Amino acid sequence: MEIYIDNRQNKLELDDNMYKILEEVVEECLLLEKKSTNYEISISLVDNKEIRELNREYRNMDSETDVLSFPLDQEFGEVPMLGDIVISLERALEQSIEYGHSLTREVAYLTAHSMFHLMGYDHMEEDEKHIMREKEKEIMKRLRIFKDEEGE
Fold first, then answer.
1. pLDDT along the chain (152 residues), means of 10
2. Prediction pTM value
3. What contacts 24+ positions apart, CB below 8 Å, involve 129-136?
């Protein structure tokens, strides 16, 4: 498994634990789906300005969002590329405060959410949304990342 993490924002400082959590979430999502861990995934950590620009360019929505998923599932080399995840850390911090949990928990959840998009899940219909939410909850449970935990 190759995970490329590109921290392109300068509003929040990240520690090694955040990088470790990102990798654990990616791996656990693949294992839950009984997929090989032989994938390449990129995760870009950006600010609200950059994610708004990407959202406008790729989804024709001129607004900030928390996470964008770009599925690829293509083979260019020895390791197939599953896709790209873009997370606004600025937005994730806002949401962690709003929901009353840690930034680490919010980023882990957004990463799991995006991983399931990369693997073909969606939440446009209510039944699809329920399936996706249950999978996200299972990842948080497996990694022991809970809503009521404080601190980073």
1. 95 93 97 93 97 96 96 75 96 95 95 96 90 96 77 37
2. 0.92
3. 135/29, 135/32, 136/109, 136/112
